[in-house]
Amino acid sequence: MELNEILKVVSIFVLLALGVFIIYLIFYLGNLNKLINSSLIEIMNFSKSIETTLQEVSKDISEVKQKLEVTLSNLDETSIQIKKSFQNIDEKVNSIEEIYKPFTQLSNYVYNKVATPLQNTSRVISGIYKALEVFIGVLSKKGERKNGY
């Protein structure tokens, strides 16, 4: 066999191998294309799902925001009313304190003027009572001695 024929045979084998490789490559690329399309569809579905979820979350956040704004507004109004009520109570307590201040001063004055003499009188009466007890006790012992008891 000549070189020319060998080259032809080798060329035929190379062309056949190249043909088989190209056919294999076509099947491989076709499967790869199907895989890419399938992945693309899944990614699109996932993207739509995320978009829907984000819209729902955004809607929920918007509702919560509106309710929170109303609640905070009500809380502000309530705190202002509570502050006014406490100021009013404080003013009334101060006015009541001013009304009762003279009575308290009078009470303290009377107590200071009356308490000391009453305490002294109480001590004197207590001393007299004890002296009478002792005196009566001594007399009763003398009477018992006279009667023989």
Distinctive features:
149 residues, mainly alpha, 1 helix, rod-shaped
What's this entry about, in short?
With 149 residues, this protein is mostly helical. Helices cover 97% and strands 0% of the residues.
Task: Summarize the structure in words.
- The N and C termini lie far apart (175 Å).
- With 149 residues, this protein is mostly helical.
- The protein has one helix at residues 3-147.
- It is rod-shaped.
- The chain is built from one helix and no strands.
- The longest helix is centred in the middle third of the chain and has 145 residues, at 3-147.
- Helix content is 97%, strand content 0%.
- The model has no long low-confidence stretch (mean pLDDT 90).
Shape: rod-shaped
What's the total number of strands?
0
End-to-end distance: 175 Å
Portion of residues within helices: over 70%
Please give the count of helices. 1
Low-confidence sequence ranges: none
CA-based gyration radius: 58 Å
Q: In percent terms, what proportion of residues is strand?
A: under 5%
| Mean pLDDT level | 90
User: What's the main sheet like?
Assistant: none
Topology order in helix (H) and strand (E) letters: H
Structural class of the secondary structure composition?
mainly alpha
